[in-house]
Specification:
With 114 residues, this protein is mainly α. It contains four helices and no strands.
């Protein structure tokens, strides 16, 4: 085979691999963006449902916390952490306390949301 032909074949092969990788990365980015949007919507729904100023008949946060399986300890550490997650407070390292998708789904189920 001719050297130039082999070089061209290799280039085409590498280009098609690179295009394939770019497409899969775009799909992953799109999925992450959709997940972030869904998570944000769920957070807003849960925060509004538990906000006594907006909804005077809202269930207590501690009641929902206990119903979700988090024990209420004597020092209030679990309550504090649960509240920080609910309000998305920042921690000392600059990160944000957040519920996982499973925790949010469980809280939404307790509150009767779909």
């Amino acid at each position: 085979m001719d050297k130039d032909l082999i070089k061209n074949m290799l280039r085409e092969s590498l280009l098609s691999e690179k295009e394939s990788e770019n497409k899969s990365k775009e799909k992953e980015d799109s999925k992450e963006k959709e997940d972030d949007e869904q998570r944000s919507k769920w957070y807003t729904d849960v925060q509004n449902a538990l906000d006594k100023s907006k909804n005077p008949t809202a269930p207590s946060q501690v009641g929902v916390m206990k119903a979700s399986g988090v024990a209420d300890d004597k020092k209030g550490i679990n309550r504090s952490l649960w509240g920080k997650k609910l309000h998305r407070d920042k921690n000392d390292e600059g990160g944000v306390y957040e519920f996982s998708f499973d925790e949010l789904a469980q809280i939404r189920a307790i509150l009767g949301m779909r």
